[in-house]
Amino acid sequence: MEQRLASTWRMSVNEKKFIESSLLSDLRADGRRPFDYRRLTIKFGREDGSSEVQLGNTHVMAFVTSQLVQPYRDRPNEGTLSFYTEFSPMADPSFEAGRPGEFAVELGRIIDRGLRESKAVDTESLCVISGKLVWAIRIDVHILDNGGNLVDAANIAALAALSTFRRPECTLGGEDGQELIVHPPEVRDPIPLIIHHLPVAVTFGFIGKESIMVIDPTHLEEAVMGGRMTVTLNTNGDVCAIQKAGGDGILQSVIMQCLRIASVKAGDISSKIKNAVESFNTERALRKIKRHSSSSAVEVSEPAQKGGTELSRTHVGRLNSTPEESGVGQSNGMEVDGKILQQETSRRDSGAQSFIGGPSSW
Amino acid sequence: MAIAEPTNNSPSYIDKLVVPGDVVLDLSSMSNQTIKLGGGLRQDCDSITAMKAGMLRFSKPNKYWVESSQKRYVPSAGDAVLGIVVDTKAENFLIDIKGPALAYLPVLAFEGGTRRNIPKFEVGTLIYVRVVKANIGMNPDLSCMDASGKAAEFGPLKDGYMFETSTGLSRMLLSSPACPVLEALGKKLSFEIAVGLNGRVWVNAAAPSTVILVSNAIMNSETLTSVQQKLMVDKLLQRTQ
Asked: Where are its TM segments located (chain A) (predicted)?
């Protein structure tokens, strides 16, 4: 009890009063005006499909991985998209390790809804063999530091990671034309996901008796505010999702005002994401040119080769385990996987690198 | 290796970096002199060892401590800190001072405090207090009086704004010739400030905009040199005027 009391973060009455009273004159404790967004920085890891987003003091990391699985029965030719969050106790003492809190679930649901319901990611293009194999895309979001407004930061991180993610190309081939070949990235360039639009989440907080609206609340403002609303929109101005869970009630006119402000902010944010992704892609292309020129040297070195095969083996191991988990069409899945294994081992000379997204290695 | 052999005579370590395990003082070589140990130092028989990495400081006549910058505060006796009231018990107030454990502030530890006039603090009140006892494994003891039993500026802080910084920055703000940020700000603006060694800083002024300007200038100054600090403050002041 004592220990727990000591480790929780607490706020003084002075801070609460100051935040509320200074808002009456349109001032915020960090020097922003009510409708200013904090500085946003988007960084990428070396691997495709990993991103790191900083929004003021908030720090979020996301990475995307893919796996070949059996599709759901009612959607035989659609890939799947799943979203997982990890709230580290280092980010905020109120987060508990292992057990997702109420807020962690809500955050996951908001972002998941924004991406899925608006069909931002084209899932049909993830189909490999209808009814048998599709790509399952998994987005992992790690909260590294909580400076407030985790929803927006996590959403931007997820979008940035999805936009740089590339899945390995696979074709049907072999003697009978039924073998599935997953091409390592050296042989055929991995394919990016088809993303139709970027649904950007913008969060508003409502503070004090007058429910003064602020955009992008900090963790201090979050502790004071009576209600929050998250609006997810894209650059076209389409509203993809709205989340207003409890708290102070707000007027319809305020919601409309929020939507107008949010659509402007969403435009800014998505252009920032696009610019960051573009510069990452040019850098990636430049890196590839270098890799080809020095490829002979890489192949000679023994340990690199070993590492490569090991990685590809673990990947095949993962593939094997998936049909068992789903429990349906096990034998079928195993057959296909066996063939993948053959392909992989025959290509070990090329020093196949892991093609399952990016492990956190920067 | 070009690293010099550590010598045993104590003055060589003052204002130098020490790492945990360094024997900074040898008591056997000092004849019956009492010394006071601050944070980051411990006594093993005749030797004083550093417990954390940082700069060893000495203040006349006999105080030694290790200075470093961190987010967590390790209580040590004699520090003036800013605490937040967490709970009220019959004998003590429970105060959060950013340390590993909550601190006790006895209800009688106020100037002229008796059983009759126990102050009432609501949860979340910010108070400026002094650490009296800080033993390992025990909750620290606080007091709202200086050593001679006077109130001496200690007590609850009303209004204003409190923000958290590192312990290093709060020491810098307290250093005497006044820290460049505070000096530059103080020339143009009038404000009240209370700095706790636990990294909490309280600022109050007539206008909220002054409070915001001062607190953000202080938070930004952590990694800047004194010249940069002055430039930053000048720019901030120009923008607001």
From this structure: none
Residue A57 has pLDDT above 60, yes or no: yes
Chain A residue closest to B99 (CA)?
A6
Annotation: CATH topology of B80-156: OB fold (Dihydrolipoamide Acetyltransferase, E2P) (2.40.50)
Q: Can you tell me the distance from the alpha carbon of B22 to that of B6, in angstroms, rounded to the nearest whole number?
A: 9
Residue B85: predicted pLDDT: 94
Neighbouring residues of B211: CB distance < 8 A, sequence distance ≥ 6: A18, A22, B160, B161, B191, B203, B204, B205
Give per-residue pLDDT as tens, B34-63.
Answer: 888 888 888 888 888 998 899 898 888 888
B86 touches chain A (CB under 8 A): yes
CB < 8 Å to B124, chain A: 10-13, 16
CATH of domain A2-294+301-350: 3.30.230.70
Size of interface A-B (CB pairs under 8 A): 67
- Asked whether the beta carbons of residue A22 and residue B216 sit closer than 8 angstroms, the reply is no
In CATH, what is the architecture of B161-240? 2-Layer Sandwich (3.30)
| Chain B CB within 8 Å of residue A17 CB | yes
Residue A267 tokens, joined: 């435009």
